[in-house]
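User: I'm putting together a teaching handout on how multi-component assemblies are represented. Below are the sequence lines for each component of a complex, exactly as they appear in our records. Could you produce the 3D structure of the whole assembly as structure tokens, so the students can see both representations side by side? Please keep the chain order the same as the input.
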Amino acid sequence: MQYTRSVGAGRVTIAQVAREAGVSKTSISRYLGGELDALSEHLRERIRSTIARLGYQPSQMARGLKGGRTRLIGMLVADILNPYSVAVLHGAEAACQEHGYTLMLCNTGNDEKREKQSLAALHSYSVEGLLFNTQGRNVAPLKELGRTAFPVVLLDRRIEGCDFDLVGLDNVRAARMATEHLLASGYTDIGLVVQPLHGVSSRQGRQAGFLEAISGRPDAHGETVEVHIDQPGHVAAMLQDFFKRRRGQRGDAAKLAILAGNGMVSLQIALALRSMKLRFPEDIGLLCFDELSWSPLVGSGISTIEQPTYEIGFSAIERLLARIHGESAPRREILLDGRLIQRGSSQPAQASAGSKDP
Amino acid sequence: MQYTRSVGAGRVTIAQVAREAGVSKTSISRYLGGELDALSEHLRERIRSTIARLGYQPSQMARGLKGGRTRLIGMLVADILNPYSVAVLHGAEAACQEHGYTLMLCNTGNDEKREKQSLAALHSYSVEGLLFNTQGRNVAPLKELGRTAFPVVLLDRRIEGCDFDLVGLDNVRAARMATEHLLASGYTDIGLVVQPLHGVSSRQGRQAGFLEAISGRPDAHGETVEVHIDQPGHVAAMLQDFFKRRRGQRGDAAKLAILAGNGMVSLQIALALRSMKLRFPEDIGLLCFDELSWSPLVGSGISTIEQPTYEIGFSAIERLLARIHGESAPRREILLDGRLIQRGSSQPAQASAGSKDP
DNA sequence: CTGTTAGCGCTTTCAC
DNA sequence: GTGAAAGCGCTAACAG
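Assistant: Of course. Below is the structure of the complete assembly, with chains in the same order as your input.
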């Protein structure tokens, strides 16, 4: 089987359409560009039918080369295996399609080198804008690009020293709500289990909301437990440690609960609790950031803070498009609200019966 | 903040580099194309340093326009929310990066119109090849494109009348293995629960392997249960139906088990069983296609057939690149093997104790 | 070994 | 209203 290269002999070009229709390339171009009132009814119809007959499809590469309008948007994702990223991607892709843009996706796998390469690749395709969601320890290349090349919108986490727009969760508020729910359910000793806080604003925001809520209740104790989820056994060890410490402090009067900082952490916690043969809510309360497909399934159901991931992705693209279209307003942050989904894991009283699933 | 358009004044071009280095554009182009032995050591060094100094990055749009080598690969995904698709995407993206290609992702959301639009979009960017994983009821546009424009590799499912390469699971073999495992575990009445078979070769393959294994055991009964997972309550109703029918047939001697046709179905089954207050393996055996993050977590763990999703995505890209590089061998199918992961849900005897998790 | 020249398919002045 | 001509940034003959 032989393919006629997509650019080459096989493809019908604007010149062919012009010749067939007996008009100039300029008129075709005007037609494509939507300058309809600049064409006579006569030409308009001629062009329309010729395009349809030949199945003509303008080359975006050529259009982009001339005008800079590539209708391409790049998205850099820290970890495509993270359900949060995929959920946001879902909304972003939908928005792109709705606005006639196409998404170029790069997964950095939390690797700085790949992040840099991907950035360069996206730049070389002249993407009109970039959705960015990676660690970003070394953000110099990004800052440079953003200043000179194209608009950038940050997802989920801020980057220090960058004045890019950001779309994400209202972390402080969501964490406060989560913590207050646990306190209201009667828990006295709560551990916020998160991946390393350093440099990640969203995690820091969740911690802030958590501590804020705790500080309103002098009788309650809250602490932050940092875990490395890619380090086998680390989560279990840290949990064990936390439990022992609190029991030592308050004895059996301590009502222990965990607030999981995100979906990846929740999974590790669920696995760890299972390996420790601890059940929730009987032995320990549990509330997790990120609603996952399996949240209702484990134990008596895991309570969660659901993020509006689709909207986050969708409005991130719309923010980007606004900048692409020339908006020059000062930096904006769009913080969306989370939603508490109560299940058995955070309701010690009622949940003893088992499968209540509101 | 004002952005100098990515194509435009801000960008460093080959002409500037040529001028600065005091050589011709051709020499720069040769350098970029890796024709190093065509350059003198003198020029090579001049060019290298100038490129570095100016931070020059060739425009892929321009390169693509001229030579047809866009280094772009399109991927059409039926449903980005399906964990299988994402897992394959993961491998595909990695392979692209390794080979210097960039992925253009389109999610069709199982919508034929969007599928057609996305196909057109990818074509308009002159992707060099396409990874395709959608329903494909109406495949006329795809077949047309594939014949005239660029190579296509199919993921997971065949498309009738298309001679495209395919990469996926050896479904017959995997289903046979799965079924034999259930039979060996003592189950006598097995329901293969799948989404509608019609037109989806991978589902049909799984059914074939299932029936094959069943036919080897005259004492056992197997039947196919088609479900619509987007129809609330349908899965539960179909399961209920199946159970009643088999109990009616064989009474308490019937050892019932379910073989779930894919990850999306498993989730619905797990939810349905939960709503019916049925546990596994106590009340019913369960084995699911697709290993998911939460498979170890539910009940005493769900046994699964794990697909080598990363490899599937990775080798699909490599297959595509072979075609792009001109390979004209007849159509090839690459069928990878699944792996059985035994957990509690398919082991009625041992599993009564609870959390054995090999 | 190196440079000159002519486009790739499209948009965009600038005339008519 | 319409079209001719000049590029966008790059590659690929073709000369020297």
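A couple of points students might notice: Confidence is low (pLDDT under 50) at residues 4-9, 350-358 of chain A. DSSP finds twelve helices and twelve strands in chain A.
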